[in-house]
Queue: 4 jobs
Job 1
Amino acid sequence: MSGAVIEIIQPKGKNAEGEEEAPVVVARAVYEHPFVVRLCHWLNAVALFVMVGSGLQIFRAFPSFGAKIPQKDLLHWPKAFAIGGWLGGALQWHLTFMWIYIATGVFYLGYQLFSGNYRQVLFTHRDIPGVWPMVKHYFFFGPKPPVREAYNPLQKHAYTTAIGLGVLSVVTGLVVWKPVQFSWLGWMMGGFHYARIWHFAVMWAILFFVLGHLVMVILHGWNNFVSMLTGWKKDPEY
Amino acid sequence: MKNNDRKINDRKMDEKKFRQIGRRELLKLTPVLALGAFAIPSLQEGLLKKGLGFSDWASARLFRSGHLATTFDNSELTPFAKFPLNTYDVNDPGVIFENWTLTVSGAVKKPGNYTLAQVQALPRFRQNTRHICVEGWDVIGRFGGARLSDFLQLVGADPTARFITVNCADDYYESLDMATALHPQTLLCYEMYEQPLTRQHGAPLRLQIPTKIGYKQAKYLTDLKVSHVLDRVGYWEDQGYSWFYGL
């Protein structure tokens, strides 16, 4: 469970009189990311990379949302930024990694729910008052709001949205993969055509999140990055 | 943060121990590296084949015999002229209709050559269903023909057999699981839009399976085999596509 705080100390030797000196606290560290969260984060990151790459290769086979005759191509995605080499290859990657993508997502959600750790990341109505001050700060016209927990309201909003998008990517993908068996889901999305459009749109929304996420990770520095590897964040702001 | 709050900061750890813990936690993530196996050329093909096989297994579990594919109004049909033609080598393998028969073999009581008239003597079903290509496009067509399940009954197919394999005049070949073959919407199709099947669309007889992806709908059928083991899978499957590919 996250939230444990420790002090990192440097033990001191004996002073001139031969008395032991008290150790000095050199830093604080907080355990932010439980093992399951870190494991799922990285497995899911790899799976997402493959899903997007192979998905774009699949899209190359029919880069359109209209009729086959006449076909109006929407986008000529370069093959160099796609995975699988051809449609059949890309489908193999897509239909293999979707299980890793789904499994890590389900395992993550289950863990967060049952451990209660979701409170760290779930955006709720209590976070709403903190949104505007944080926006002002991010856009350089407000003071930095005090940091009291792992994620500020905007971070919670971003992560909650990203997880929701992840769920949507799976649900829309299920309809594209099995439009007959999941016909009721397809009906909710406006039919097979729309499911394919939603699946594509959700991918871009996820990529938009990933871009923002990477920028923020770089801006937040090394200790923050390491926390997603070891779980411990050194010198937290709170 | 030296004026610490004792209530929260109840643990102290020296620097060395902290680094040790960090390393240990990092090592616990090594399972992620296992995904690197997919980047090793000699392992990649086998792993992806396993993944695709797992998806096929799951697809078969998701298939429900009683669940029908959505059918559509005539007003929603794709105009016949806009119905795409996908073939793997020729548009018309030049079947001589007068001589055409469907050769039935394998686990059946009455093997032999069946004429189109014998297929057409079975109850005819017409359905407006969605045809989805693996490429991603789809059309809604009006198809007519006999239920494959009725034909299997006619030829006395072994009810415990597991697969149907077909060969085509253009050397295309395909296979089906028995559950899909017995599905009420799986047709031996001889008409489209209430007209006899055109040569380009697979005359005189093709498969029409609204619960399967496009490449399973083999055209210009010449042979049909009922079997317990699958000796030949399918043309596109042999290129690396999914076998079950149920929709």
Note: Helices of chain B lie at 15-27, 41-62, 116-120, 148-154, 178-181, 235-239.
Job 2
Amino acid sequence: MTTQTQNIRWFWFSSPATFYPLAGTVAWIAGVLAAALMVAGLYVGFVVAPTDATQGEAYRIIYIHVAAAWMSMFLYVVMAAWSAVGLAMNARLSFMMARALAPTGALFTFIALWTGSLWGKPTWGTWWVWDARLTSELVLLFLYFGYLALQASIDDRRRSDRAGALLAIVGVVNVPIIYYSVQWWNTLHQGASVSLTRAPSMAKTMLLGMLLMALAFWMYSIAVTMVRVRCEIRENSV
Amino acid sequence: MLAIARTLVARDLLLAMRRKSDVATALLFFVIVASLFPLGIGAEPNQLRAIAPGVIWVAALLSSMLSLVRLFAGDHADGTLEQMLLGAAPLGVVVAAKALAHWIVSGLPLVLIAPVIALQYDVAAPLYAVLALSLLLGTPILSIIGAIGAALTLGLRGGGVLLSLLVLPLYVPVLIMGAGAVEMAAAGLSSAGQLLLLGAFLVVAAAFAPWAAAAALRISME
């Protein structure tokens, strides 16, 4: 037996042609999981979980809001990681992954902002406060838009991939700087009027619902990204 | 390497001197934008004093960005940029020198003219120094980070608007610290924290951003 067969071929699926069928399978599995988890998560969140003592029924939006906010930040990091791999290894598939992740990330950022303001109106009495988290989430949305706009305006495929990748990496370096400066700015301006950080002791079912929704959104992101990568592969192999 | 940088800065400054109107446009833009706010908001002195640092900083951001489009465009059009890419000088040094020249032309005048705008906003005289110092530390960051955006959008249709979409979110920390320094001083507190952080941003940006911009130039020019 040669050493060739003993080695696991790590890069077997890094070719678009071999990745295409795998992506189809993964998309199906992740899609079914996403649907099942979402049904379970929404059931736990909206039916099983108790009503919050101080916030009433309005708090239930967090089952969507928190999961979306997690995904929005996580997906940007994943996108930057794929961009870095793409630039380092000059792999077309990595750029396709980064490109496919961006619209979903932007969508989750928007959902997080939107549901946040729906939650803010009954709870804080206003649609929008310049809270550190809200503001940095808004800047994150701008970063996603910048990435999408740059990719859309470059016709040359190779340049568009690489320029977008560089922008994503520059963005991910800046995200923590932006977050902390916004936080400092916020404390300077209005003190600690509203704080999301002191979380009250949460009922187990609430936590379960939130985790289920986070997993559901995660699976949804994988499914949608895989479908989009398959489109990218088809577009590029013509 | 220093000699190359010095030559490049001198060359870019000479080119800017030959086209004084370009320099003046960005400066006038700054003055006009800053003058529009009282017309829109009202001339109540207390209110003007409160918004002055933010307005001046936002106007500086916009004005710096306005001239960023031209950072590489001229050299790109006449082929000089390609020679720079082929040349022996490290591209990061070339980018840093061009960003420095851009700052001398578009940032430094803002530092000098900002106290005059602050006068219009009835800002207390002791704050002029803090405002000028915050701009002195902050505007070079705008030029260096902006160079990445200018390199990425080189030769694209709608490059100017796209550039602002890419670069403005990255300017957020500079805006917060710059305006924050003046506000702290206005509240009678020490603005050292913000100014030191601005200085730290400047050091980090000067160390890394030129290389990112150089990589972006290579991507755009290949």
Note: Residues 18-50+204-230 of chain A form one domain.
Job 3
Amino acid sequence: MLANGSPVPANGPSLLLRGLRKAFADVVAVDGLDLEVTRGECFGLLGPNGAGKTTTIEICEGLTAPDAGTVELLGLNWAGNEKELRQRIGVQLQETQFPDKLTVDETLRLFRSFFHRGLAVEESIRTAQLEEKRYARVGTLSGGQKQRLAMACALVGDPELLFLDEPTTGLDPQARRHLWDLVDGLKHAGRTIILTTHYMDEAERLCDRVAIMDHGRIIALGTPQQLIASIGGEHIVEFAITGHENGDGLDPALVTAIPGVQSHRVDAGVHQLSVRELHTAVPRIFAALTGQGLHLSEFRTHSATLEDVFVDLTGRNLRDE
Amino acid sequence: MSKLEQASLYQLTMVRFRLFWREPEAIFWIFGFPILMAVGLGMAFRNRPPDVLPVGATAVQLTQALAADKGLTASTMNVADGTQALATGRILLLAIQEPAGVAYKYDETNPDARIARMVADRAIQTAAGRREAVHAENQLVHETGSRYIDFVVPGLLGMNLMGSAIWGMGFSIVDSRQKKLLKRLVASPMPRWQYLASYLLSRLAMLVIEVVGFLGFARLIFGVPFRGSIWQLGFLCVLTSLAFSALGLLVASRARTMEAASGLMNLVMLPMWVLSGVFFSATRFPAVMQPVVRALPLTAAIDAMRGNMLQGMNLGQLAPQMGILLAWLVVPFAISLRIFRWR
């Protein structure tokens, strides 16, 4: 670990968390978290609501003090380096409402004035694609535009490290894609980005690496491809069977015995198999079911996603609430 | 951008101005309301020629005797009508002709009625031939500064400075906290003291408009006197406004919702509206309450302003009031800096 104030090697981690712990009353929000994010990386904290993502990111942002553990940003601790760190990071919080009666331009001018160096207001407006709304009052913006304004406020200090807390929650699909393009652009400009989300497609689309969080812990860490590969099969087969009164009469051992089938689970009457090679496994599945005299009412396949990883790890869906 | 425009304190203060000017209701309450209040009170308590008191009498010769006095208007009526007129306030006194002389029917607790009793008796005795034992002559004083409007204008000024400071601080701080804007600002490199300072700076700037507008109006329309130094009055206004800003900051330092904040603000201001002598002298409260009443910032502010405007007192003579205001500035400010909730 680096001592305070010592020169930071250019390839040192942007963010380093060790043994992070935080409890609110008797609820443990973050339960022993270790994490390292390297420079230039777009890192995602993925998990259901209440997994501890926001607490974790707010500890990183120096807004919440951890009960235990160390936090290092750009090689610096919060204690004693707050002024410098605030100059070097950009923050977007969940649910910030900027004053309705200020214009986009005025809001950005205000935030720009807090930083010693940074982007020109015009440039941050251009990056957030709010040119047409520059002199419009914040109260007249759509949800997506407000979120892009929040992004512009986070960017206006030209941060080395950018925190985005659920940047697309509550947005319609089009506004989400718009924001994704924006994050893509920032990524390609080489910024280090740490974002939280409970949308697995968002994490898959944007993040170089993802940590899946549940109950305050990281239960899986890796690139989206690694995580998907970790569940054994790259494809998911889902089917349902008609007929029987007590369950559907399918013995799980029968399907897991099929070569190429990695795992089996049942959710609301739908069987889910993770499968390595679709073209060899599917005919065998059909054959096995027909051999048992079972009739299919549904059958579909999709490529495995982070959602399937989460289901595989926890037995729950990401958005089970 | 110029150097000034890049300064965060400038930007924060400008934001305060913009948000204020874009809120028409706030403008009315701060600038319009006190003037309307002064107009209303000025009309109600306008300087009239000495009141002509309406009285009634049951006999024509009594009516003539009463009407001979310039301070009375008299009409003849029977006892039943007269009693009815007394009850509804159309007359203040009824003179009843009786075999042995005259009886006066009036409400002794009404000061006007007591005056009517004295004037009516004088008129009737004079008509009956009474002569003054001692020759007396009147020297009338017509002086501004002793009218009710002169008394109430400093009171309204103090009340307005209290309201604008406490509402101005309280609502916008709690609103920013509720909307998580405070938390967002704290996540930026904004120096926290500048946030609070921007409120004070914008308050002071608006204070100029507020005070000059209101006092200018009171001077032009009612001829309210300024016997003390205008600069010292300005200083008193600044001190008052800062003291109430500190109190507003304290009120806003923890509240998470607007409802909680407005409850607290009313809790703070209501006792002062009643006790601090805005509309009548605070000396009317019983002696046991006086230490409390005197210690309230609004009482100190209004006393100091009346001292300056009506009695021409200088700051040295107003030191006790200024001391109280200073204490109300320092203590709440120090407490709120310690307990302020930034998120």
Note: The two ends of chain A are 39 Å apart (CA to CA).
Job 4
Amino acid sequence: MSNNHDGSTAARGVTTVAPKEGGGFPNPGLPPHVHRQADLHKSAEKRAERVVAGMFLLSVIGTIVFIAAYFLVTPTGRNIFAEEGTPSALWWSNLITGLGLAVAVFFIGAAAVHWAKTLMPDEEMVEERHDIRSSEETREVAVGIINDGLEESGITRRPVIVTAMVAALAALPIAVLAPLSTLGPLPGNKLHHTFWGHNPGQRLARDHDGTPIKLSDVAMNSIFHVMPEGLTHDTPHRMEERAKAAAVIVRIDPKLAKNEESMAMGVEGVLAFSKICTHVGCPVALYEQQTHHMLCPCHQSTFDVTDGAKVIFGPAHRPLPQLPIEVDDEGYLVAPGDFTEPIGPSFWNIHKDK
Amino acid sequence: MKALAARRHHPMALLVILLLALVATGGLYAALSPQTAQAEAYSEDDVEAGEALFLANCATCHGRDAEGLVDSGGTTIGPSLIGVGAAAVDFQVGSGRMPMQSSGPQAARKEPQMTEEQTRQLAAYVASLGPGPAVPDEEWLDTSKGNATKGGEIFRVNCAMCHNAAGAGGALTRGKYAPALDGVSAKHVYEAMDTGPQNMPVFNETNLSPEDKRDVITYLEELEKTGSPGGISLGSLGPVTEGLYAWTIILSLLLGTAVWLGAKAK
Amino acid sequence: MTTTTPSTRKQTSDLQDTRTYKLGAVGADWLDQRVAGGGFVKFIARKIFPDHWSFMFGEVALYSFVILLISGTFLTMFFDPSMEEVIYDGPYTALQGETVSRAFASTMEISFEVKGGLLFRQMHHWSALVFMVAIFVHMFRVFFTGAFRKPRELNWLVGFALMVLGMAAGFTGYSLPDDVLSGNGLRVIDGLMKAFPIVGSYMSLLFFGGEFPGTQIIPRLFTIHILLVPAMILALIGIHMVLLVLHKHTQYPGPGRTERNVVGFPVFPVYAAKAGGFFFLVFGIITLISATTSINAMWVYGPYDPSPVSAGSQPDWYMLWTDGGLRLIPGWEFTIFGYVISLNMLIPFAVYGGLLGFLALYPFIEAWVTGDDREHHLNDLPYNTPVRTGLGVAWIVVYLILALAATNDLIAIALHMSINDLTWAFRIGIFVAPVLAFYITKRLCLSIQRQKRNLALHGEETSRIVRTEAGEMIEIHRPLTDYDRWVLVQHEDHRPLKAGKGVSALRAKATSFFFQDRIEPVTPAELREALEHAGHEKHIIDGLTGGDYRTPYEKVVH
């Protein structure tokens, strides 16, 4: 039994397949055929026909409902089930249009399948498998053709041509790199700086309305989501700047601080940190006011705000970079410069000075 | 006029002018300063009744004088309530979170144990202990005056990361959670933002103004009004529940159809 | 090869008299003179396909892909893949006046304004989920029945490629509406790219056409999603089908079925009706779901901005396993000469690569172990191959743990648990659970084999017991017919190999791992013995019962 169908032996020679004792059991052949109701009784056959025809008819009804829905149950126009233009109208439109199409389509399938199952012949038929491997003659002819062709091309006799050809074919794919390189600019020092650094002395503003924040606005145990005041709708590359400049300020009791350096970069317990997770860049937006932990919802990296936003759980490694802040003479919080280090996910040369 | 002018050298004249100036300044300030969401004033009876309720239901964890209780190991049994304001009490007691069923990482919302009147009295007592956020005025809960779009912006930046974009709730660390927001009254939403219950940060007036808060409430109402136009919402928890649905319901339907197709007819 | 029964011949001649038939004949002739249709009909129309519901999942995948093409084409008529910012002024009140991209705005239009738009959008997304479910179920059916063995190894690789492309199609697709959820998904991809040593930041800026998010990514993903990936999928599906026709479909072992034949029903008319009908059934089911169940309500997430994020942010189900690995790995990252090596990304990648590699290469691994170079067209019953089945289950367990890890925050709120504890449970589980699953599966398979063996030798237990005078209890067994017994005895017997003589030590160990614990198939000699014994027993039983096997109760009642 380690032979292939064409009589050749297993190529690897040694196989784990054990020969069957006595050649194994003989295949008993196809079992006797069992007839269906529709084969035996005319009434059953007629009934099956009626069911098939009925299902095709149901499909037609579905099609009619589907088309009608486009006129009678629309999301923003005429809607016989709900007030025009309301979410309820949209719900009805989706439901009726969908049900119509579902019925239209489903019952074509059900009818076809029922027809095949009950009325088409269901005697099992047998088809022989042929060898996939070509016959010996065909192989010989094929091998002959290939050999002749190789001879005629001269590929075996002309090593210089072959070498040159390989060089050309190997070089061409490299050419693909050239147009690929036009897909985007070089990183340069872009990833090392943010809007805060390019425009020092920015006031910190509320993210949702751009209003600057006074030190006295920041209550104990609160969090503000912050952007630079100068980063407005008209700023060029607004989204890209926001993607790097996003920050939060939290106010903690200075007595709880574990990190003197970090506290010194804040004002009276008000600390500003980058909101962009140092893992893969989601906004680290959750703040637990009692534990003083910031949590990133994507992969659960947890940062301790009383200890310089150090990572205390999860896949992030670098602490959230801190934004040094001061108070100007009107009482507003300002950032004299950029974050202490590049924000966001780590990359190869993130620690290199740029 | 002549009589008034004749008295301008009276020794009391300066005092009268100062008093007038004070009243004028105070009045102008009251008229022109940014609105705070003050609601009601409590009576002495309210405060007394509240104190009685407090001693009976809350003092065991929060201390006899609401100064807070810490156990021998240093863990807080109940925090100090001095300065938390009527809003905090109205929220915690009104949503049934307090009195807490059992200590744990989180006080869960449950059936309120106090009547509205009792809640009001407790709030009055705690408010008397020290100044703090008050129960919001109806004006700030009137969604006809709010802007849903602005509210959505505020919600997505300040709230969705804990409570989920649809307000379906979310996990915090170590068994804590931000609860789902469906069925929460506008008043309680306001108070929660204002007081920052448990681990929720404090979003007081200088962080999110009363208009901002009203906008958020309007947005939440709009979300509820819109409902789920695409059909069953599967809890608004996103791709995970959708994937589960595909692997269970849809796969079962397809499997059933396939089995029917392959089975021999009767 | 083809059979026409006498009963159909008379009907055929009636048919041939009809006008429709004659018209058809003219048409067929016209076609045949131009494209040799006759040869094609001869080749394909009476091809036999075996009937089993477990063979239908490849079809489900194919049909859901067709539905993706149809619904997708509709969507492209309305979707605008531009990141240009506009002010939303459609019917959805909560976003009116909001600054959004054209991509987001056009998706809103499709959902809220285009008639049937929401339906087609939901059909498209549900079909995508069903496509991947079907691919997985199909792939594991093929795995557990050993249908990847020669000559089908190449088709297995084609299928594997289709699975990977399916994931790519899904990911690029759900990122197109430019909402907060998928936008944060893109941010994660950006972070992953940046983590690559040396070239990371270059890759990121090339992919996004500048710093994240840029204005290029949605149009680029659109091209990938509607052109490049579908073209590759279609081409591979073509190859997949051609190989299927060339190799013919596998079949389950059974009476009359051999390695040299296919038993079933012909393409025309039975499979044309059944398989064609099945397309409409799948279409109908997906449409029913799309009419009644909401998916990806992107207006609730809001337009993408780098600042907001939603609690419970996960990718579509088939990408969950990649997200889970990122949550489980601790923050291992170190610097060497000031350069960063992010093991917290590289290790998960290595794991994903390993899992995929194992799957892709499995046919070749198993062929190396068994040295079996024969063609296989009869499927294995999974319990007859305990180690293969165990390995498959272990793979699924690893995959499942990774996928569940990505849902840890949802499990935490649903079951009131701590996400930190859950994360630790998964971190330990991913090492312990697969080993346990393998062991339990293998033992279960061997157990089933033992039971089947008994069944083959002794027949079915009838729960009727007779008691001899001596007090011995004998259960009456109903002997199996040859047809029923065949499936239980036809399977292969594998033995481990000893090292030496062309068998390396490693290979010998591998064969031992696969085949040391085994239940040997019933041999004819064993069966003869068992039948003899059964004959003796029957003699005794008939002596006691007089040939009437009814219980006393049954005798009274009947």
Note: The longest helix of chain C spans residues 419-458.
